[in-house]
Specification:
17% strand, globular, 7 helices, 9 strands, binds iron/sulfur cluster, alpha/beta
Length: 250
């Protein structure tokens, strides 16, 4: 390609990269706007999260241990999730993840790197929750291992995964809390009997204890990695969960 002058050259490069620049902005992966993660600011932590389209919404199941009750009550439709534009953005992000995982992970890596810098500039400790509305095994995709000094955390409904966590097979900088549903009661009982992993339970009203364990209020902040070991993380039913009839809400 011949250019008459540098202005033509700049214009040609701009045109060539316009689509990828637009795609980059349209495909911003991490959010800081979730109301719950904003509560972490008071404790000096800046949380960045990733919202994808949960369960089978994208055509590929991102939550293979989900129950009927949790898929119905999923926080995906809470808060800003009521807006169609937000749902579309989550869907597009998920299609990007499903279709081009390598590119997706490069973008995610870049955004994590930039977010760490931004948080530190603000004098905050950065932390990341990549499964705001999904249950992906990020540790298998090596993202967590690439930032060994940074705290990641998530909830999970995968029993084998939480056992790997308990047995020390998950990177140390990745904190996991098991998430109860109406269909994993046996697993919850086994975890309570044999481990000290924390278990999140959605309640209509918080009890002081549940199945013999102390209940802490998980709605006060989102910083699950600061919870004591062996507690029940109580979450108040919100959004569609208020109408739950499956037993997902206790
Ligand atoms: S596993 Fe979690 S993210 Fe997935 S559908 Fe259930 S509540 Fe939503």
């Amino acid at each position: 390609m011949n250019y008459n002058n540098s202005a033509d050259e700049i214009l040609a490069i701009y045109r060539l990269h316009f689509n990828s620049i637009m795609l980059y902005f349209a495909m911003k992966l991490l959010t800081e706007d979730n109301a719950k993660i904003q509560k972490s600011l008071n404790k000096g932590y800046k949380t960045y999260g990733l919202h994808l389209a949960p369960h089978k919404l994208s055509g590929k199941n991102l939550c293979t241990s989900a129950s009927k009750g949790c898929a119905f009550a999923c926080l995906n439709t809470a808060g800003l999730g009521v807006f169609k534009s937000i749902q579309n953005a989550r869907l597009e992000r998920t299609k990007f993840f499903n279709k081009n995982q390598k590119e997706f992970l490069s973008s995610l890596r870049r955004e994590i790197f930039l977010a760490i810098g931004r948080a530190e500039k603000m004098g905050m400790i950065p932390c990341f929750r990549l499964n705001l509305t999904s249950d992906i095994l990020w540790e298998k995709l090596n993202i967590i291992q690439e930032f060994p000094t940074v705290q990641f955390y998530d909830y999970t409904k995968h029993f084998n995964r939480i056992m790997d966590y308990y047995n020390g097979f998950i990177p140390e900088n990745y904190h996991l809390t098991f998430s109860r549903s109406e269909s994993n009661e046996k697993q919850v009982n086994a975890l309570i009997a044999d481990t000290d992993v924390n278990i999140a339970v959605v309640f209509k009203e918080f009890p002081d204890t549940w199945k013999g364990r102390k209940v802490v209020n998980g709605d006060n902040d989102d910083l699950r990695f600061l919870d004591d070991k062996g507690v029940i993380v109580g979450l108040k039913a919100k959004g569609r969960a208020i109408k739950d009839k499956s037993g997902f809400v206790v």
